[in-house]
Write a structure and sequence with these properties.
Rossmann fold, 24 helices, 46 strands, 27% strand, transport, ER-Golgi transport, TPC11
Length: 1112
């Protein structure tokens, strides 16, 4: 058996204990039925199955014999607390239940022989378990699905006979039919087996409690602890965790009362660790995590200062490490089963503490075992794997077995053996790294990035101490990214130094160069001697030589480094580019265009600034700028030996600038020229290292030291702006755009916009294109209601822009004029652009360039309604009406008021009528033709219409179309106004009056009333004419008459005016259907159709004949 390590817990306690059930008599290899039964029992044993440990044993299996029991504890000598073989015995050697499987049917013809054979096997099984309290049971495997025993008389009799022959109670006999429902029978058997095992463990608990009652607390403390532990574990096997916790707690309390010394402290701590493990495990299983945490904290507080022998202090740290590690495992397992942990309380903290104690163990072992060079001559650790009790020393156990005391010399030799084993056989790094890795995983899970990085640095340091430099370097370079971004200078400096040592000791050339260039930066803390030495080593490696010795490194490490560099082939080819943007830069770079934009006929100016933060001067061998357009790369190159551009000799803490200039290409107009990266080459071919600064997106500049302003230095490096992108604009145009138009713009008119292009160029203008239209950020409704055109035609699809309208070439100093028409159908202010593009030749630095130029101007055009329209319906009396009557004439009146500040000419007005209405006159001329309107003036157009038939619903009469134009404009605009939608009603009678326009006092006048029957029925009418003080009249005052369908009745009256002025006519009353229930008066209709007044002039004066003669 493998010896239990310090602080370790037996494997039997780490998992949930299950009742041990032994199966006897199954032969899966010889019987398919037995194989199916065993597979059903053993496969898919998940948490939903009964907690049983099912083991198949041969029939002649020999169980361990019980040892003789003590009749009393009067002379019992305690030798330890917990026996190391007790758990394994009850979990894997002594079953709680032994189940005998036997093939036999109730109607088997050889029933008697098989019954005798079965009883013989049962006696043999009992004999092998003699002295044990193991429960036995019998399972009959039957091939035929029989009737239940209670309902089958033969089965009942034979079952009773079989129980008597096997000396079994009826409850210990089970029947297992082999059928399609085998798994259901198996589950029921498992439940029965579980009940049997629970009865066994209950009896075992009673037996142990009976022994405990004979023990004396003063003299048998260890025995009482052992009994409490046994009772608790047996209750666990009985699946009663609540009672198990209570007994484990009592055992823990009894253990604390035990006197401790250097001789037994390890045993006490080992048992305490086991008891604490079980208490915490069960608390987590019972979903009371706070109790588990409280128990563990109390456990640690009690034993954290019980170190024991100072020479074995590393064992105490190992024990403490195991305690935290085990609790972290339990905590993590509980989280996996659904426990919710939080950021301030999770398993990572316990793994971290376990790692800290493991590190303390490593430190103590190095200090305490330094002088131990060899083990003692006598192997005092022999027999460690077969100790009877947990936590004892082998030499102490042997002396205790002989009832002797351990002499001090033997004790010293035993301690020496332990120290030598700790020094030579224990790999401390292998203990620390897994614990730290577990802690990292937990802190990462619960989103604690800084703790995660801190622990990763500890892992790297542990790898470094164990001389696994490659792994240490990989971890440190990974965490350095985060520490650089947070700019914690001491942390970055410390980690970077360790990483650089790892790169040096592992002879990793890329990592050594990158970390070395970062280390020699002034931002990193370090001595001048160290940085100068590292800089020398860097350039040695670049040139293909070996680095110098790392300053401050011990000789043993230097020997390792020399061996590694000696086996490493130094680079003879150019190294990969080193990205400087994500490290702390020893050489800083900035680029700056002269302006944010250049014109196509200007030289683009670029400056590159380099500043060295290294302790020693640097001699670069080349500089090259890379653009987004590779065409310009060749113009920005500095090679060694070109002092005209700038020296590549970089002095520490000085800024060196390099100036470049080049002409842009015409194809790059209206695009950006961007510096993608700057490359500086260190070393000479064929080797060398290229430093690259990425300028796209600005990079991630980590830290710069402010440079004090010195005499002769224009500006400090950190104050230089970074400008890595410039825009190439088209050449500035030497043309002017002149616009000739008369605002405002009127709705529906073709608005004239005259554009004159005046050239001021010294060369002809070719490929001249005119573009104009609405800008792109207006209200969307304007784009669908605006049209630009060169012809006065209303388009089918509005075009809000004109693109690339070609114009003839313009000579130098010449002019071209183009008129564009703008038509709007919506009021509002529109912003219009006018752009002319052309090509011309210009001379720059002796070169003739063909440049594209563009001139663009903007103007705001306000569009207003030219007229305000008002449409009314009038009757023949010129009174406004809302409805019209069929076959009755009415008037449409259209008023138009000018809103334009300029004179407007009205060309004509016309009606487009609906099918249900028509003009009274076949030839109708508009009244507004050739009328000129100024602002605020109103023109009126009148049309007489008639609707021949009634219409039920209100229907549009039609539309009025007005043609107009500005005064002097060539194009005519059209404006359409919808007419009202009145309802057309039917009327039984239509009345007309035939009368002179005026009368004279005392001069008779004739008035005729025409009554038209508009129906297809005879109309019975009664007429009543009222008297009048203004007239004497002759005619019917009361009349009853009939009017035939579609006929007319004329009534004539002779009126004799008595008064002058606008005199009311005699009032007429008409009644339809007089004397009937449907009689109705037509007074309202008469009021609308007939005139109510007539103008009567005064009587003319007459002259006597004598007066006339005298006057002559």
């Amino acid at each position: 058996m493998k010896p239990l390590e310090i602080g370790e817990v037996p494997d039997e306690l780490k998992s949930r204990p299950k009742a041990f059930v032994a199966f006897i008599g199954l032969d899966p290899q010889g019987s398919n039925i037995h194989a199916a039964i065993w597979d059903a029992f053993s496969n898919n044993r998940g948490p939903d199955r009964a907690p049983l440990n099912l083991v198949m044993l041969p029939e002649k299996h020999v169980f361990p014999k019980p040892k003789p029991k003590h009749p009393s504890y009067e002379r019992y000598e305690e030798r330890g607390v917990l026996k190391s073989n007790w758990l394994r015995k009850h979990l894997a050697q002594v079953p709680a239940a032994a189940i005998l499987f036997f093939d036999m049917d109730w109607d088997d013809p050889q029933w008697a022989d098989k019954r005798a054979d079965c009883s013989a096997r049962m006696r043999a099984l009992r004999a092998s378990l003699q002295g044990r309290n193991t429960k036995v049971a019998l399972v009959l495997v039957q091939n035929n699905l029989s009737i239940p025993v209670g309902d089958n008389l033969l089965a009942t009799e034979r079952a009773h006979a079989l129980c008597n022959a096997c000396e079994l109670p009826p409850k210990a006999l089970f029947v297992l039919p082999y059928s399609d429902h085998l798994f259901g029978f198996i589950l029921r058997l498992e439940t029965a087996f579980l009940e049997i095992t629970q009865g066994y463990y209950l009896n075992e608990c009673k037996r142990v409690k009976a022994h405990k009652d004979f023990a004396n607390k003063n003299t048998h403390q260890q025995l009482l602890i052992r009994h409490q532990f046994k009772i608790a574990f047996l209750h666990e096997l009985k699946q009663d965790p609540g009672i198990a916790i209570r007994h484990y707690k009592q055992a823990y309390v009894d253990l604390l009362e035990l006197k401790t010394s250097d001789a037994n402290i390890l045993e006490v701590k080992t048992v305490a660790g086991i008891l604490n493990y079980k208490l915490c495990q069960l608390a987590f299983m019972q979903n009371i995590p706070l109790d588990a945490i409280h128990q563990f904290r109390r456990h640690v507080d009690i034993f954290k200062d019980r170190v024991g022998n100072p020479r074995l202090a590393f064992e105490h740290s190992a024990w403490m490490s195991k305690q935290f590690s085990h609790f972290g495992d339990l905590f993590e397992e509980a989280v996996g089963f659904g426990l919710t942990a939080i950021q301030t309380q999770h398993p990572g903290f316990y793994f971290q503490q376990a790692a800290n104690h493991a590190l303390a163990r490593k430190e103590q072992a190095a200090r305490l075992c330094r002088d131990v060079t060899s083990p003692p001559e006598v192997n005092l650790l022999e027999g460690e794997e077969s100790l009877e009790f947990y936590g004892q020393r082998p030499w102490q156990a042997r002396a205790q077995g002989r009832s002797d005391a351990v002499d001090p010399q033997t004790e010293d030799l035993g301690i020496q053996a332990l120290q030598h084993r700790e020094k030579t056989q224990v790999d401390h790094s292998a203990l620390v790294v897994p614990l730290l890795s577990s802690a990292v995983a937990q802190f990462k899970k619960y989103r604690c990035p800084r703790m995660k990085r801190h622990l990763m640095v500890q892992i790297a340091e542990e790898y470094y101490s164990s001389r696994d430099y490659d792994k240490a370097l990989s971890i440190l370079t990974h965490v350095l990214w985060d520490y650089r971004s947070e700019r914690w200078r001491p942390l970055v400096s410390n980690i970077l130094t360790t990483a650089l040592k790892c790169a040096y000791l592992s002879a990793s050339v890329p990592a050594f160069l990158m970390l070395g260039l970062e280390f020699i930066s002034s931002w990193i803390q370090g001595t001048q001697e160290e940085k100068s030495s590292i800089q020398t080593s860097i350039f040695n490696v670049i040139e293909g030589s070996l680095p110098v010795a790392f300053p401050g490194m011990p000789p043993s490490s230097l020997a390792i480094a020399d061996s590694a560099w000696g086996q490493k082939p130094l680079p003879r080819e150019p190294l990969h580019n080193l990205d400087m943007d994500h490290i702390i830069q020893a050489i800083e770079c900035k680029v700056q265009f002269g302006h944010s934009a250049f014109y196509a006929d200007q030289r683009v100016c670029l400056k590159v600034f380099l500043r060295s933060n290294c302790p020693l001067p640097i001699k670069a061998s080349g500089l090259k700028v890379h653009f987004n357009n590779q065409h310009y790369n060749a113009f920005c190159v500095v090679e060694e030996g070109e002092p005209a551009i700038g020296s590549l000799h970089l002095v520490p803490r000085r800024t060196q600038s390099f100036s470049f200039a080049f002409l842009p290409r015409s194809c790059d107009i209206n695009s950006d020229i961007q510096v993608c990266s700057v490359h500086v080459r260190l070393g000479h071919p064929p080797g060398g290292l290229t430093l690259a600064w990425n300028c796209v997106g600005g990079g991630s500049r980590l830290a710069w030291d402010p440079i004090p302003r010195r005499h002769g230095e224009e500006v400090a490096f950190h104050q230089l702006p970074q400008l890595a992108t410039t825009r190439i604009h088209p050449r500035r145009p030497q043309v002017s755009l002149l616009l000739d138009h008369v605002p405002p713009v009127l709705v529906h008119e073709f608005y004239q916009l005259a554009i004159t292009i005046a050239s001021e160029e010294v060369a002809p203008l070719t490929d001249v294109c005119l573009s104009l239209g609405l800008v792109d950020d207006l209200d969307p409704k304007y784009y669908s209601t605006t049209h630009f055109t060169c012809e006065p035609v209303v388009p089918k699809q509005p075009a809000s822009k004109i693109r690339g309208f070609r114009i003839e070439d313009i000579p130098a100093g010449g002019r071209r004029k183009q008129t564009v028409l703008l038509r709007n159908s919506e009021v509002g202010t529109r912003r219009v652009f006018v752009k002319v593009e052309y090509r011309t030749e210009v001379e720059v630095d002796g070169r003739v360039l063909c440049c594209s130029c563009c001139r663009e101007i903007f103007l705001d055009l306000e569009c207003i309604e030219p007229f305000g329209f008002s449409v009314k319906l009038l009757n023949l009396k010129f009174d406004p009406v809302e409805t019209v009557r069929a076959e009755e004439q009415f008037v449409v009146q259209v008023d138009m008021e000018s809103h334009c500040p300029l004179p407007l000419e009205l060309i004509s007005g016309s009606l487009k009528l609906g099918p249900h209405v028509g003009l009274v006159d076949k030839e109708c001329q508009s009244l507004v033709e050739t009328v000129k309107l100024h602002k605020g003036e109103v023109a009126r157009d009148l049309f007489c219409l008639v609707a021949p038939n009634p219409v039920d619903a209100p229907t549009l009469l039609g539309q009025y179309t007005l043609q107009w134009k500005r005064e002097g404009a060539p194009a005519v605009a059209t404006h359409v106004v919808p007419l009202p939608s009145p309802s057309v009603q039917g009327c039984p009678l239509l009345l007309e009056v035939v009368a002179p326009a005026h009368g004279r006092v005392r001069t008779p006048l004739t008035v005729s009333y025409l009554l038209h029957n508009r129906t297809l029925l005879v109309q019975d009418v009664e007429l009543v004419m009222d008297s009048s003080d203004a007239f004497m009249y002759s005619g019917n005052k009361l009349l009853h008459f009939r009017i035939l369908p579609r006929e007319c009745q004329t009534l004539t009256y002779n009126l004799y005016p008595l008064l002058s002025g606008y005199v009311a006519l005699p009032r007429m009353h008409l009644v339809l259907g007089p004397g009937t229930a449907a009689a109705s008066t037509l007074d309202a209709l008469l009021g609308e159709m007939l005139p109510s007044h007539i103008f009567i002039m005064p009587q003319a004066k007459t002259v006597a004949p004598c007066e006339a003669m005298s006057a002559s």
